[in-house]
Each structure stands twice: as structure tokens, then as C-alpha cells.
Amino acid sequence: MRAAVGLMLSHGGGGVEPAMSRPDYEQSALHHSCLLVLLRGVGPSRARVLQRAFEKVRRVSHIRVNDSAGNPRSIWIRFVHDHPVEHNDWGDFQTHRRLLGLITIGRFDNQTELNELCRQHESLKVRYGSTLYESRAIFFGPDEPPLDTIGEGQAPPISGRRLQDEFTTPSNFRSQAFFYREQDTCADLESRIGDFASALFWVLESRRLERSREKADKVSLLLAPFEKRDFVGLDMESRNNRKRCVGRVMKNLADLSLQAGLVDDALSLYHNANETLKSVGDSLWVGASEEGLCAASAMLLYPQMREIETLHRNSSLQEAGTSPLKSTPEKWRASDATKKVTAGEVTANNVDSAQRVTSNSSSCSSVSSLVTTATNSSASDTPSTSSSSSTSTISAAPIPGHQRNGDLPGNILKAEEITNYYRKAIINYSKYRHAATIETEAALKASRICIEQNRPLDVAMFLQNILYINLSMSEAEKVKRFEIITELYQQIGYQRKAAYFQRLAALQHVKQGSQAPDWNQSYRLMLGSFTGYLLCLDPLEVLENAAGWPALQIDLVQTLITAARRLGHSALATRHMTFLLQTQWDNMSPTEQSEMAVQLQNLSAQCEGSPVPLVLENGTVIPPANLTDLPYCLDCQVKDLPAHLRPQRIKVAKADSGPFLFTPIHFNSVDRRDKKKDKNKIAFLWVQNDLSEVTVRLRNPLPFELAVTDMRLLTNGVVFESLPQTIVLQPHVPTYVSLHGTPIETGQLDLQGYSTHTLGVKSNCRLKHMRGRSFPPNYLVDVIPALPRIGVKTSLPQTATFSNMNSADIVVTSASLTLYNGESSCCTITITNESTTLPLEYLEVGINSNVEQELQKKIFRIDEEALKTKLPVPPLGSIDFDLHIYAEADFVCPQPPASLNSGAAGGDYGAAASLAPYSNMSTSGHASLPSRVGSPQHRRHEPQNSSFRSTISAGQHSLAALSLQPGGGGGGAGPSSLGSQYSQHIEAQVRLKYSGGEALTAGYCRQCAVSFNLELLPSAQITSWDVLPAEVASQFYLVLDISNLTAQEMSLNYTDTKNILIEAKESCRVPIPVDRCSLEQVVAARAAEVAENLERELCFRTQLLSFNDALSKLCSIHIAERVKINWLLTGTDIQGVASLRGIVLSQSMVDLTAVSPLQWSISFQETPVQPHSEIACTVGQRSLLSIQLANQSLQPLRNLVLSIKFYQDYLNGMENYNLETRVAISGPNKIAIPLLEKQEQRQHTCSVIFFTPGRFKASIECSSNPQQKQSEHQSDMFSSSYDEQQAHVWKFIPPIEVTVVEQ
User: Fold this and answer.
1) In the structure, what pLDDT confidence band is assigned to residue 663 with cuts at 50, 70 and 90?
2) 609 Cβ partners below 8 Å, 6+ apart?
3) Is 91 strand, coil or helix?
4) How far is the C-alpha of 458 from the C-alpha of 449, rounded, in Å?
5) Torsion, Cα of 197, 201, 207, 213 (10° steps)
6) Where are the beta strands (DSSP E) in 853-983?
7) Which of 360, 550, 434 is nearest to 18 (CA)?
8) What is the pLDDT of residues 330-367, one digit of tens each?
């Protein structure tokens, strides 16, 4: 009943009641065994000077002392820098709260400062005098002055003089002081602090012995500070009160034993005190005894917690940019690491392993699994004596790094029991309002024990209980509570909860109504809570992980922006707003996106955002944030240089290395096939100092215009000069933007993206950071050495349209020209080296057109050797060269097969069929290209002695004029159907490959082209032709029908001295004397035909060539080379040459064109006959005619027939061969010669009698008939006669002309 009354009194009553001022958030269960020492700096703050001394003092946190019985004791020291005096009042309740020692550290320069240090030390002693056992003062004085600073009248100081001999402490200073020079190493300081700790132990041990010797009936009642009035007026001699006194004293003795290193005795005393206090219902002290049991058990089970505590105290916040999962302890990440310890799992053989101390937190699970030694002894079985010797069953607690010998005591709490006992203790504390601080500290201690046991749920339960404890705290203490809860949640991996409480602490700093809001601390805490919200300072990692709760993350970043603004750090506010837009853009609605963009624009107006890291005062680095998707890049293309500026490899002719060998075996081909080409490698090349281009397609996702300024390319590798670009993007409209720059060096250029300046923020938008698009991480472009640039001009006018040929994109200029067939012209091309530093050292000119290569060579001609002599071209210099253009055309109309075989073997030279009007030309042209030649205004007069008008001569047999008027001419398609459709259109490109400088050495050049549009108009046309014998044997007449296809009069020069005028669309017939083809040429053609036939027979076995074809081709070439028809359009300077290339000859024409293989020697009346000689005889006179033949060819002639025939020529195209009544021949007029070997001669003689007078002509000819059957052996064909497959007729030219007169 009295206990209940006391409980009610403790919750009631008014006035100020004693309570702890604030909880000790750093306290752990192991601190129950520590001696509390205040370590305080006094005097002026000189942290750098005194830091070494503080470190040395704190290093002595544990000593090993032998007691009076010689047993070793482990004594632990806890140094604190501040200790409220009211906490000493709770020293009877829990002795580890009592301040037992005092150490002050200070520095002085003179006696006055030393006196002040002593005064401050003594004032601290007075303040904590009720509990202090010992105190020490550590003073650092001035160093000895160097010798060179001593004056002349001063004596040098005595070397090695002690500082305490120079300065003395005041008389009222009763503590022991240690003096050191400022630069002293303090080598003996640790040993002196050890002696100080040993002194504390002996005082404590004496107090413990005194307490243990007190008699049970004479012990006084120990009280908590708030209990003093609860027992006023109560009967203290009652049985319950006596048991309460004994139980509390026993608990106090257990605390002293625990501090004195007697852990086993403390366990027994705690158990006995717990049972005694439970029996009287003393809940507050029952909770204290249960907490003591937990502390004593934890000392034995988890000795490594002392080192872990040190690590936690010195740990810093997580590094910026690390992943949120990296801060989770390893033991919480492994699911099998959270094994709970149950009784009976461990045997006594594992004791040594259980006592092993390690500083690695990963060993916690292994240690905690070995701490429950099976024992069934209960608290009632433990002897209840206050003597340490009677209760000690194991040796003292081990020093860290050493193993504990012996078994764990049987009354130690198991791992899971520690949690239960802490829970009971907290429940008992919760019954007392003044014990709220004790309850809070107990919950924190229990949390740290559960962390060591890998019990995260129990940790969360204890921490959650702290929030419901009603404590009167200041704002700073509330913040401290939230920070401690945050730290403990982080240790168990509950990052989300840790972040929540960290954010609460941040908001507490700037709570509404606060007198001095600390925005700096608020910002620091909110920045540290990023990990719990699965955020990090690096926006790239946030985007990569894509984890967390977007709504919470957005709210957190907005709060952080507010804190940065209140701090006046505009750069930070801009950076965080940029971070928000970059990481949470996809998680915001369009309205939110627009609002955030406007906010960013307003923030950046105060401080512009830049893509550089920001370093805070505490060393935290804020990585750069970039608006990668604002504007949104839809496409990115690296553009090649313009076609005429693209570099090309200079082709080098490869040497013939032998035959190509193929094998299906792939040697080392697996690696080659598996090696993938770089997808980001650009196939084309860029050139140093040439403007390059990258095209991007952008879209503005905002509902208002977005201005993007200073947009540049981001590159790496070679030096690259980017040109800025500015553009205004309309909402939601894709826009193409061209970004330009110039590579300054050669090598590999790494195109990584582009930079922008929008909404007041400069951003580096790299391709590898653009999510949701198939962009490579970068583009690699090879930059080759600089190439010269040239400008090209021509002397011809430009055309309206460029070429339609392939590679038309390399054309830089054009030229147009209209020519008549056979006309020649010259175009001057000027090349200017536009480079300011590079010479033009290499220039190659090539021509490509839409005609065949052979024809192209005839139309276009360049003197390349003369061009090479003009190289090199200096910078800004120029050269020119001539392009000769000839309007090549087929002036000869093709003949039908019938006309080619119309020649009679009997010697009819009047081949009228071959002169029939015939034309089969089919050409095409462009009507859009006007003719440059119109109708002539004036006709040019030619000399009358060398020209004649083309007229129709009715007296000629086969020279029929050709009419070019519609409806004229013979059947079929005649010249009358020819018009503008006969013009030809030729497209050509003069391609220039050029290079110079280092690029030429590397093998690179450029290529450009000049486009030529050439229109060829019809001029003269040879419609028919024939070959007639001439007056001399060495020549023949080529008779041509020539048509004027132009629209004006044409002057033809067909020999050196003869001209003829042809009206427009008219034709004329002209005879042209031509030298016959020599026998040597015929022999060479024969030899070439034999060799080719032999090759065909041996190698290809195809159809053999005919000698007739070779001879016909030879004669055609002979005529084309010797006959050139020059034409001139009268009234103009337009002139040209009509060629007979491609003329086709019949067999009879070939026989007249080539020199006969027979050599004739004819005599009449034994007089040799000379050409055009006068031969006369009388009627009835017998005249002797002798004919001698000689084979001049290299082959024998077979089946020859020599014939003699007299006729009369009426000179009107009529010849009379029926002269049986006028001439008689004595002897055969035809003889057969089966074989005439080479160089063989045959002679035939006959007599001729003329019956009537007149002029007679003798036609003497030798004909050959085709061989009737083939030789038995093929070799006979090669050695056979001149040509046995064709019929030939060889005549004596000119015919013999005999004048017969009367007798």
C-alpha cells in the first residue's frame, strides 16, 4: 500500500522536481562499467595546440589493475566533455552517472594566465566536488627561447630547466598538475593518466568494500532525487521498507562491483537485488536492477561493442554520390545473417571463440551466436552474498584483443533474455514521470544491444517507444533525439525511417515560431536524408536506379531548395532546382513541369547555373545537374563534309602478287568475326581546319517558347573549336538545329553531345545520358590533316541545270557548249588555290561521261604533261589548262546488206545501187538547248576557179542528186526526215583530284567536278559512196554523196584545191582521188590474220577470222586516214572536219582500194605500154599483144583466169562490148592459171586484128574463183593462196586505148 502511495505521489504534487536536464544519447550498456571522467579544456581556445594532448588522454580508456588479492581487474574510463551537475544526484540510483574524475588541459604564456587556468580548474572541482575522487591539471607553457634572441646583458638560460621551476601554481591550488612545453611530445602523459585512472579505481574499490561490509539491518535507504519526499512520514522500520533498503543497497553494490571489474559478482548481486525489489514492488529500482543485469551480461557477451562504439563516434556522413544501398550494413543485407540465438545451440567448447574480440562489424553475427551457454540455474539458486570472493566464479573481464579464460557464469542472461529484460525495465521506468530520461536512455541502450544481436525489428520497436516518452526538452535536444534515432535506423539499414527522422530534425531547426531558425543545420540534415529516400546527389545515378517514391522525393528537393534560398545560397538553390527537373521530369504533370521551369528561370536570374561541382563548407560536393531533356533531343546525326570537300584515298596501283588462292579454312578467324565494329565509329572523315556539322532534332516540351542560347558541341580528344548557336523553340514542334565547329588538330575526335544555355542554366547534354533513345554513348570521328581548297572557273557560260550523272554532288560549276558534228573547240579551266597556308601539290584530271570510253577519248583531250609542269600551286595562286573538245560523230550512214554485195564480179564499176540515197542515223538531243547557229545572213564567196555549184548532171550514169526536201528521194527513210531530233546531248564531268601538305603524305585528296553539257548538232552526212578506178594504177576515186544537214549554206573542201557549196538541206556528189592501199599493209594484215587464227585455234577453238574481213577493215581505215572533208558554214566562223571513219566497203571496192597482188607488164607490138600512152595501128594489121603476170604477194594465187576483152567507150556512160565484127583475137582471150606461186611469172601472147577504124579499149583482168572444197588439213588453209574464199578481180589500170586508122 505504501508503495502504491509512493507511486501516486511521484506522479502528483507541484513545484519544481529534481530530474535530469537531458538524456545522454551517446550512452550504451557497456558504459555501466566505466568510470566517468570530465575532460575539459580551460583558458583561451587553442584547439590545434591542445588537440595532441586530448588525443593522448582519451587513448587511456582502459587499464589493467591487480587488486589487493592479486587478481587482475579490467577498469574502463569514459571521458566526457560536459556533464550536468544534476546528473550526479542520480549517482546512488546508477553509479555510472556519478562524475569521479576531472582532467583539465590548458595553455599559458605567463604567470597570470597560469593562475587563471588554476582558478578555472578549482571552480570545476567545487562544482563537482560532491562526487569527485581525483583531479589532474595538464598545463602547456611557453617553449624555451632560441639563443639568438637573448639580449647582450642577459645570461643564457639553463638548458633542461623544468617549466614548473619557472612558474608556480597559486597556494589555493590543491590538485596535481602536469607541466609541458608547448612543443613537448608528452611521452609520459599516457602513463600519468594511467596512474590517475588507477587512483580512481582504488578509491572506488574502497567505497565498494565499505558498501559490502554494511550490515543489512543498518543500511540506509538509497533514493532517487525525486523520491525524497515520497518517503516522508513513512515507517522505515517495516518489513517491506527494510527489504527495500537491502535491495537498493544490493543493487548499488552491484553497480560498484561492475565498475570495479567484478562482473561475476555484479551479476549475482543484480539477480538478488532484482528478486528482493520485486517482492516489495519497488518498480523504479527493479527496472534499474534489470538494466544492470543486461549491462553486465552485455559486457561478457559483446566486448567488441567498445571498439564499435569508437568507430561509430568517429564515423562521418555517407559520401555524396554513393548508392543508397551501399550504406546498409553488410549483416542486414544478408538474410541468413539475422539468425536469432536460442538456448542449447552452443556448447562449452565454443567459449574461447565467444570471447574473441574483433573490431570488424561483420563478426557480430558469429559472436552473438556463441553467447548463450546452456545453464538451468535460476536467480534463486545464485548465492546472495555481498562478498566478491564468494560470488566470483570466473575471472575478470578480458581486455580487448585477449581471450577470456574459463566458462561464462551460469547466471548470465541469454541473448534473447537481454531484450526481454530491457523491455521490462522500460516498462518499470515508464511508471515514473521523473524517470523519463532514464527510460529514454534505456531504450537507446536496448537498441544498440539489438543492433549487435541482428534484431532490426526489436531495434525499431525500442526506437519507436522513445517517441512516446514525454520529455521536457529544448528545440536543440529534440533535434539531437531525432539525429540519434536517425543514426540507429541507419545502422540497421532502415534508411527510409532514418531519412524520415532526419528530415524531422531538419524541420525542427526551422520550426515556425523559432527565435533563431538554423537553416544551415536544416539544410545539412535534409541533404543527409537523401539516402533514405533512395536519392543521391548525383542526378545520373538517380536516373539510373529509378527507385524510390517520386512524390516524397519531389517534396524533399523542394524543401531543400527553400532551405538553400533562406541561406542566401542562390547557386545551391539553382542547382537543386535543376536536379529536380532533371531527375523528376517524367514524374511531374505538364502543369508542374511548366511551374518548375518558371521557378528555375526565376532562381537562375539571381545566380546562373553552371555544369561544375559545388563544394560546401563541410566538404560535401554537389555534382553538376544538366537539363539533358530540356529541350528534348529526338535525333542526332553527324554530317559528312560537302561532297566536293570530302577526303578520299589516293588510289595506288597494286603490284601483281600472283594468283588468288581461296581456302575454306579460316585461320584465326574466330576472333576476327567476334570482334564487333564500334557502332559509334563514323565511317567518313573530317578534315583539320574545315567547318564540320552535326544536326540535332529538338522538341520543346514546355507550353511556352523556349530560348536556347550558346548551344555548342561537346567534344573530347583533339582540340575542337565549337561555334555557338541560338534558337527559339516553339512548343511541341520538332526543329532541326545545325551545330558547327572546326577541328584544330588531327586524330580521333570524340563527339559526346552538346551544351545548352536555357532557363538560365548551362547544361552539358551528353548522348550517353539521354534515356529512352537509341543513341550511342558518343561518336568517334577521325580527323585527317588539312587539305587545300580550290575554286574552279571555266571560259564557257554556265548551264541552267547541273549534271544528272552519278556523283553529281561533287560538281562545283558547270559549262555548256553547242557544236556541229566535226567542229572543234577549246575550254580554258582556271583553278585557284583558296588555301592561305597549304600549297596545291597534287592534281589529277579525269573525265567521265555518258558515252563509251573510246568515243570519250576522241571528244575530250587534255595535255596532262603540260598540266603537271604547272604544279605546285602556291597558296592563293592559280593555274589554267585547256580542255580540247571535238564533236565526234558518225558521218557515214550505214549501208544495207544488199548494197554491200551489189558489185558485179564481172567488172561493172558503175555500182549505182551503192549510191542510192540511204540513211539510218538515229540520234537524240534536248530541245531546251537552243542552237547557237542560225541562218546565215551573208554567204561567203569562194574562188570560182576552185569550186562549183552542186547541180544535177543528167549525163552521168550513177551520179544522181539527193533531194533533202520532204517527199524527195527514194523509198525508205531519207534525209528529209532529219531535223532537230538528230542532235546529240552529251553529259560529261571533268573530275579534279587534288591534295597537298601533310594530307598528301598521308594519302588523302579531295575531288570536285565541272559539269559539261555538250550539244552536238548534225552538220554533213555521207549518205552513199562508191569506189571507181582512177586514171593511174596507184590511185582510185572515192565517190561520195554528201548532204548538208544544217539550216544554212555549207562550203565543202574535199581536196587540197577543190571546194563545193551545198545549199541547206541539199546534197552533192564529189569524186576524191585516193592513193591505193600498199602491198606492205596488205601483207601485214595477212600476217596478223594468220597469227590470230592460230591463237583462236589453239586456245579458244572459236570461229576463225576471214582474211576478207581483215582486208576490208584495213581498206576502211586507209580511206578514213587519207580522206578528210573540211566544211565551213558560210557567213560564220563555224568549221569542222567530216571523217569517213567506219565506212563499209564491198569486195569489189576492196579490190580497187588495195594494190593488186599482180604486177602487170604489157607490151603492144613489142613496145611496153605506159599509162595514158598513145597506141596506134592500122586496119587489118596484125598486132602482137604480150601480157606478163608476176605474183607480188607472199602467198600463192590459185584458180586464176586471165581474160582479154576489147570494148568501145562512148563517154556517156555507155560501153559496147559486142565487137565481133570489128576486132578479132588470134589465140585464146581467156587462159586459166591453176597456181601462181609467189614471185612466179606467167606470160601470155596473142595477136589482135582490127577490122574497122576507131578508138578501142582493151580490158585486161585476172580473176580468181572461190575454192570449191576445203583442204584436208587445217595447216593448208594457213599456207594457201591470197584468199581462196572470195572472188577477186584484178585489172590492168588504166585500160589500153588503141587508135585504129585506115591504111
Assistant:
1) low
2) 571, 574, 575, 578, 600, 625, 760, 761, 762, 763
3) helix
4) 10
5) 180
6) 860-862, 878-886, 947-949
7) 434
8) 444 333 333 333 333 333 333 333 333 333 333 333 22
